[in-house]
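FW: tagging you since you asked about this chain on Friday. Here's the raw sequence from the shared folder, copied in full. Didn't touch anything.
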Amino acid sequence: MMNALQNGSEKNASPAIGNSPTTRSLSEIKTDLFQGPYQGLGDRHQILTTHSGGIDCFALHDPDCLAPLLDHYCQAKYPQDDRRAAISMWSQWYFGVLLSPVLVLAAAGEAVLTFQPNFISLTTDDNQCPAGFEIHDRQVHELKEKSIPPDPWAHLECLIDGHLEPMVASLAASSKVSPKVFWSNIGVVVAYVEKHVLKNTRVSLAPLINDVKRPDGNRNPMANPYSTKQSDDGTPSRRVCCLRYLLTSVDTCPSCPLAKL
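HL: got it, structure written out here
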């Protein structure tokens, strides 16, 4: 799922000076960025000037819109299995496909992405499993000219507050699964991108998964997605079980916290 997650060089007529941000189109940034070690990461994200029929991700904040999608997926993929586990699996596809390229685009490109209605849409396969995303092309600010690297909390606040929080709430309402399961699924993606994808960038995502509290003092639900317990293969175990063990047709994940109980 982590693998879910082209050369424009023109900038504005006036280059950035001091702390003034440079403005470029998302399509230019994506073209420049997703090369070399990032090549292929953004293949499931299409940056378009017009919408082509995907489901507006902000519509999924409404359980009445999300639940039928989940019902179709559960019946098509896991008709005999626990619906809660199937929906957790759906969310792992959703967050894995969505976040890996978006986090790279925002952090490595140091681009300010404004998550709002009609900005990003979901595309699915015949089973309603997340297959990719369509992003509406627009001019965005790059902060590479700033002397101080962007704070990841402030830099990604719009993504976290504007989409991830209401998406988790909608998933929980549609499944009766604890929100902490979905936040854990998100934290695992963030940890993967921070450790294995982002290299030599000024923006570190580590605070998003290391800070116990958010800058406003509220609890950080993404914190510490892994425990100190080791899995059989030597990798850390997840702190919160994703319920995958309840799916009879899917192998238990190697980082399952229940493996040794």
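FW: Strands lie at 22-25, 45-48, 55-56, 120-124, 130-136, 139-142, 226-230, 236-238.
HL: agreed, and The longest strand covers residues 130-136.
FW: great, closing this out.
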